[in-house]
Every structure is written in structure tokens, then in C-alpha cells.
Specification:
Number of helices of chain A: 16
Strand content of chain A: 15-25%
Number of strands of chain B: 3
Structural class of chain A: alpha/beta
Largest sheet of chain A: 6 strands, mixed
Helix content of chain B: over 70%
Radius of gyration of chain A: 22 Å
Shape of chain A: globular
Structural class of chain B: mainly alpha
Distance between the termini of chain A: 57 Å
Strand order of the largest sheet of chain B: 2-1-3
Strand content of chain B: under 5%
Helix content of chain A: 40-55%
Oligomer: heterodimer
Shape of chain B: elongated
Largest sheet of chain B: 3 strands, antiparallel
Order of helices and strands of chain B: HHEEHEHHHHHHHHHHH
């Protein structure tokens, strides 16, 4: 009697498992994305229905950036668009991911914007800088200081949420702020005479924007994910083809709800990588010229600023095999 | 004459009543218009119309007046071309006509992409979130509230915990709601529910307690039992007040909408508001806020009108 019950339970569990895995296979890949030019570009493929053409079932979900990482951490998404630094932070709290695709690196969209009269990072000595401590803007600032032979102690940091930096600079409470688009651009227009004294174009590769996939989904659906990557490079081609660039930007602009003219400026500050360019960033070398090196620097920054306690195994966050195999 | 306008606790006649109602909207609009269109009232900025030789001025640049005056002085001293400009308000205070235009274009702008919504479709999704949050809260909360107001045993059982829980901020449950309910409408509905439910129990039980005890005693004398007491005395006795409570609570539910819709995927009217604010298009932001106000007020007026039809005896009581 007992054994037959156990058998029955085992059978039921087996049926449940197969049903669950069958369901899992039938479910589309859920991808969260948000308002950053390198990710908004996915919209082109969605609008043109290229995923369907490629035969991969995906479902893109539009979020606020932080909400998208929360949803990924809660296990509601198979992948999320985030920066390499945030992938480490999200991973340190339990939602590990693997970066399989580099969309872009910031090429000027992240800026140190200084009030009128301040012309260089060196002028910031002893001044107040508004920055969201522990986030990429902070990392950009530290790097800018280092390039100019200074350290964090040479300036006074004021912790300001990034989307409030324009108003804070305008209020005169600080002498400079660190922000990314659209906030950095808003700061420039809100405070006439202010100027970007350092941008991510001065240190390309400080921040990479990637597609980070949950390891279990990657293992179970590797073929599907390579189709997703393939579609991405179709988007990149479409964006770089002079004949279709305007159409691509029009689609992207409508996603974020502003005019195409205004949006093209944001696209300029983002270096969206072609397949050939992207392949060069997967070497496991130190320094900003590789995803690995950049992530190592982020990791150290995160530990130094107590974003998380112990260093992450950076190498395990990167899987370039799909891109390199294209 | 003055007596008619300032009679203590007497209702105004119908014409002055309508006048006052219109005035209550016209007055704020007048103040807003005055601040927007009369330059010397506020207008702390200058909008550059002619940059002159000031290096960083462009046509349309907004600068503070002191900065502008300083630059004029600088240019005078350097013998260079003077900048010119008009007085203007800061970017976050658009003029009424700008908001009116934004209001119109927000509704008439066609979706550019396959998966984009018309504004009224976004609004509809917001309204559905509100409706379901409020509906689910009501079908559970109202019966519990009535029981608590009628029987002490339920009051002692439920109310201490409810009192505790109503202080917990609904938005704090966002992450939990996403983890359990997914990323679409369900977690948003849950936030509206949490925001409404606990207040609802207390409000309804309080209303139930206010029922005239003489009615209950009379019914008991006439031999009413527990169930018939509840359904034939208590509920009919409080139904008009209950209806009023529900109208107020529905307004309450609306105030949770923005927080609720920030959870999970960006959707509804909140997506429109936060995104336009991010790009500093405040005319659109104001237009959207007004849409919410208009929807709220219209629903409330509609419910009030409906209430008069459903409970005609209440109108008779009011005019008597």
C-alpha cells in the first residue's frame, strides 16, 4: 500500500514536472527593457516583427529602469537590459545573470555638468558635486578625478537622485552634477552657461549596456537566445544604414514619447556597437577596453562603496560565445 | 440681500448655488491665468529672443532675470551687442493655453507603432486597475465592515489588526506584489486593494455603528432575529450613508493609482506622466493630471446623480 502510494506520488510529481517544463517551453522569452537609447533600439525589431521572422517567441516588457531590475530579481523576467555594473549588483543580491550581448557603451551621454565659470575637473577642487552615490555617475566622477590626478577627498559629494540633478544644479546648491541622459541634457538647458566638463566619451567603456539573461533560461534555450542576438544585429544594421536610420530613430523616439529630432541627439551620445566592434570587447583583459575589465572595475567600485560585501566572480557573468559565433 | 448670501447653515437658492460652483473653478483658473499672462506678477525668468554677443545664449534660452541683467551689463561694458528677451515663467509652470493644446494633442496623436496605445486606451487600462482594485476590496471589505459595526465579536476580532495594517504604506508592498503576482495588472490592482481595503473596513464599521439604536430596539421588540435584523434593519438603515462612504473611498483609490502603476511594467496614464516629466514637457504633465481630475469628478457627479435615483427617499428627507 505504502509503496504504491509512493509510486503514485512519484508519478504525479513526474507528470507535474513534465507539464511544467512543457509549459516553460511554450512560454515566450520575457525581456525587460527601459529608456536608454541602446535598449530602446529593440523597439525597431518589435515594430518590424523581426523576432517572428526569425522564429523566436519573445515578449518585450517596457519598464522604468529600476523596476525592470526588480522584476528580474523577482524572477518575473528571463532577461533584462541593464548596465554591466548593475548586473553585478543585481547578481550580488541573488538574481545572477549572464551578459550575452553588448548593445552599446555610453559615448558622451553620461556627463559631469558644471555650473558657469567651472571649466575643468581640476576647477572642482574643494567644490560640491551632486551625484547619486554608489551608481554609475559616481563611478564616472571617480574616474574623472583620477584622470586629473585627484581623489574623492578633493571634492565634497552631495547625494542626489540622478533624476533630480538638473533642479539641484539650477538651485545653486552644488557646483556640478553627474548624470546621464536625458537628465544631463536637461541640466545643460536648465542652467544656461553650464557645460559638460567631463563625459563618458572621455573614457569609453566605463559603462557597457548589455542584455543580461538568467543562467537557467540561457541553459535551457540557448538556441532561442542566439536568434535574439541575431535579430539585434539586424537592428544595428538598420540603424547604421543611412537609408533607414531616420525610420529607426522615428520608431525609437515614439517609444519614449518625444520628437525624432530631439531624440537623435540622445542616440549620438550612445555608441551602439556593430557585430564586428562588439566582438572586440569580449577578451578577458583588464582595463576599460573589454567588458570583463570594465566589470572588474565596477566590481571593485561596488565593494569599495559597500554596495555589496564581497567581490563577485566577474568572469561567470560574461558569455560571449553567442556573439563570437555569429 | 446679504442675509440670503450669508445665512448661517442655510442652503443657498439654486441659482447662487450654481454660480458658486462655477466660480470655484473659475477662480483658480483666473489666478493661474494672471500668473501666466501678466508679466509683472511673477515671471522670474527671461526668455532670450536675441542672444546678442553673449556666448551661451540661444534663442529660447530661459535664464533668471538677475543673470540676464548681469549679462546685459557685461555686454554694455564690453561695448558688444546686447541680448534681448521677454519675461517668462519657469518651465514647470506652463500657461493655461499651452496645457489646453497639450490636452487636445495628447488625445489626437496617433500611435506611431504597432504596440503603442492611444491615450484613451492607456486611460482605460488605468480605469480598469482602479475598478478591479476597488471592486475586490469592496466585496470583502464592506461585509466585514458591516459585521464589525453590528457585532462586537467581529469588531474585536478584526479591527485591532486592521488598525495596525492600515498604517503600513501600500507602495512598500510593491516588490512583494511583483514577486507573487507578476509584472502586469495584478500587482497594480493589489496595491490599490491594500490602499483601500483596510480603510474601508473601518469606515464602513463606523458608519454601521452610527445607525440609530432606537431602530434596532424597535426591531428587537417586534421579534427580529439576527439574520433578519442584519438584512432588513441594519443594511437598509445604513445604505445611503454606505453609498456616500463608497464615493469617498473610490476617490481614495484613485490617489493610489500613480504609485500602483509605477510597479511592474510601465503602463496607463502614469507612464505618460512620468515619461513626459522626465523630458520636462510639463504642459503634457499638467494635461494628464487634469484628465485624472476630470475623470474623478465626473465619476463622482455621476454616482451622486445615480444615488438620488436609487435612494429617492433620501432626497425627500434632504428637502423636507
Amino acid at each position: 500500500m505504502k509503496t504504491s502510494l509512493r509510486k503514485l506520488a512519484g508519478l504525479l510529481a513526474g507528470v507535474a514536472l513534465t507539464a511544467a517544463s512543457a509549459l516553460a517551453n511554450a512560454e515566450p522569452l520575457k525581456i525587460g527593457y527601459s529608456d536608454w537609447p541602446g535598449w530602446v533600439a529593440w523597439e525597431v525589431a518589435i515594430e518590424k516583427q523581426w523576432f517572428k521572422e526569425e522564429g523566436v517567441d519573445v515578449q518585450f516588457e517596457w519598464f522604468d529602469y529600476v523596476a525592470s531590475m526588480d522584476a528580474f530579481a523577482a524572477g518575473q523576467l528571463d532577461a533584462v537590459a541593464m548596465t554591466n555594473g548593475d548586473a553585478l549588483v543585481t547578481g550580488s543580491t541573488g538574481a545572477k545573470s549572464v551578459m550575452i550581448l553588448i548593445n552599446d557603451y555610453s559615448n558622451g551621454n553620461d556627463m559631469v555638468v558644471a555650473a558657469p565659470g567651472i571649466k575643468s575637473i581640476k576647477d572642482l577642487k574643494g567644490k560640491k558635486v551632486g551625484v547619486e552615490i554608489g551608481f554609475v555617475g559616481h563611478l564616472l566622477l571617480l574616474d574623472a578625478l583620477e584622470q586629473n590626478g585627484m581623489t574623492e577627498t578633493d571634492v565634497e559629494l552631495v547625494n542626489v537622485p540622478t533624476n533630480e540633478t538638473p533642479q539641484v544644479l539650477a538651485s545653486g546648491e552644488v557646483d556640478a552634477i553627474v548624470a546621464w541622459q536625458p537628465n544631463s541634457g536637461m541640466a545643460l538647458t536648465l542652467v544656461p552657461g553650464s557645460s559638460p566638463i567631463h563625459t563618458s566619451a572621455d573614457q569609453p567603456g566605463l559603462i557597457y549596456d548589455v542584455l543580461a539573461v538568467s543562467p537557467s533560461s540561457l541553459a535551457a534555450n540557448k538556441e532561442e537566445w542566439s536568434k535574439v542576438v541575431k535579430v539585434w544585429y539586424r537592428v544595428v544594421d538598420y540603424l547604421y544604414d543611412p537609408a533607414t536610420r531616420d525610420d529607426a530613430i522615428k520608431i525609437m523616439a515614439s517609444r519614449v514619447g518625444i520628437s525624432a529630432e530631439e531624440y537623435s541627439g540622445f542616440v549620438e551620445g550612445t555608441k551602439i556597437l556593430t557585430l564586428e566592434e562588439a566582438k572586440g570587447f569580449y577578451d578577458m583583459t583588464e582595463g576599460f577596453k573589454s567588458l570583463y575589465g570594465s566589470s572588474l572595475i565596477s566590481d571593485k567600485f561596488n565593494v569599495d562603496n559597500e554596495v555589496y560585501g564581497t567581490a563577485e566572480d566577474v568572469q561567470s557573468y560574461i558569455d560571449g560565445s553567442i556573439t563570437l559565433g555569429m | 440681500m446679504a442675509n440670503q448670501w450669508f445665512a448661517v447653515r442655510k442652503e443657498l437658492k439654486s441659482r447662487p448655488r450654481t454660480m458658486m460652483a462655477i466660480l470655484s473653478f473659475v477662480l483658480p483658473l483666473l489666478i493661474w491665468s494672471a500668473v501666466s499672462y501678466i508679466p509683472w506678477l511673477w515671471h522670474p525668468m527671461m526668455s532670450v529672443t536675441e542672444p546678442g554677443d553673449v556666448s551661451y545664449f540661444k534663442v529660447g534660452t530661459l535664464v533668471e532675470r538677475t543673470v540676464f541683467d548681469q549679462e546685459v551689463l557685461n555686454m554694455q561694458q564690453a561695448d558688444k551687442a546686447l541680448p534681448q528677451g521677454d519675461r517668462a515663467n519657469p518651465v514647470y509652470l506652463p500657461a493655461p493655453h499651452e496645457v489646453a493644446v497639450a490636452f487636445y494633442t495628447a488625445f489626437t496623436t496617433e500611435p506611431q507603432r504597432r504596440n503603442e496605445n492611444w491615450l484613451h486606451e492607456s486611460l482605460w487600462s488605468s480605469i480598469q486597475v482602479i475598478f478591479w482594485g476597488f471592486f475586490i476590496s469592496s466585496i470583502i471589505g464592506v461585509p466585514i465592515g458591516i459585521l464589525c459595526g453590528t457585532y462586537d465579536v467581529f469588531s474585536r476580532l478584526f479591527e485591532p489588526f486592521v488598525e495596525f495594517f492600515r498604517y503600513l504604506p501600500a507602495p512598500a508592498f510593491g516588490a512583494l506584489a511583483v514577486a507573487i503576482l507578476g509584472i502586469h495588472a495584478a500587482p497594480k490592482i493589489a496595491i490599490i486593494f491594500i490602499g483601500t481595503f483596510f480603510q474601508q473596513i473601518l469606515v464602513v464599521s463606523n458608519t454601521t455603528r452610527k445607525l440609530d439604536p432606537a431602530l434596532l430596539e424597535a426591531a428587537q421588540t417586534l421579534g427580529a432575529k439576527n439574520l433578519s435584523m442584519l438584512f432588513r434593519v441594519v443594511i437598509p438603515g445604513i445604505i445611503t450613508d454606505l453609498y456616500k462612504d463608497m464615493r469617498i473611498l473610490l476617490g481614495w483609490a484613485w490617489t493610489y493609482l500613480i504609485v500602483a502603476e509605477l510597479i511592474g511594467t510601465s503602463s496607463g496614464i502614469t507612464w505618460f506622466i512620468t515619461q513626459q516629466a522626465r523630458y520636462k514637457n510639463f504642459d503634457n504633465v499638467f494635461a494628464a493630471i487634469m484628465i485624472i481630475g476630470i475623470i474623478g469628478l465626473t465619476t463622482d457627479l455621476l454616482l451622486a446623480w445615480l444615488g438620488k435615483r436609487i435612494f429617492p427617499w433620501q432626497r425627500a428627507a434632504a428637502t423636507a
